[in-house]
Amino acid sequence: MRTYIMWLMVITVMVAVMVVSCGKQPSTGTITGQVTARTTGAPIPNAIVHERTLDKLRTRTDKDGMFRLEGVSLTEHPIHVSARGFRQTMKSFPAGARKEDESYVMNFVMDQDNRVKRK
């Protein structure tokens, strides 16, 4: 009888673990989006999109200002965008993102950097 109860408990725990693990959310995601200039709405090619977590993921925008950043931690943290001639910008992820299907969408609008460069 004791053996039966012990096996019943073991099976119950195993089923509970399987149910919990099946409902587990992924720990990373993918961000896609576009980087554009505020004044013209034109796409910004070759902008750097990156996160500053332990993984230090980064990518560059294509000629249409589009990017895809994979393996991004789903914990709350900033996503930074920088491009030559523009002020760096940042949005909080995932709060500043829109969830679509299996990825997140974050579009960035950048202001031109009109500061005078000194020698």
Structural description of this entry:
This protein is of the alpha+beta class. It has a domain at 28-110: Immunoglobulins (Immunoglobulin-like, Sandwich), CATH 2.60.40.10. Helix content is 18%, strand content 38%. It is built from one helix and nine strands. The chain has one helix at 2-22; strands at 28-37, 48-51, 58-60, 66-73, 77-82, 89-93, 98-100, 103-105, 108-110. The strands form two sheets. Strands 1, 4, 7, 8 and 9 form a five-stranded mixed β-sheet that branches. Strand 7 (98-100) and strand 8 (103-105) form a beta hairpin. The radius of gyration is 22 Å and the shape is rod-shaped. The relative contact order is 0.21. Residues 19-23 have low confidence and may be disordered.
Which short descriptors sum up this protein?
119 residues, alpha+beta, Immunoglobulin-like, four-stranded antiparallel beta sheet, 9 strands, rod-shaped
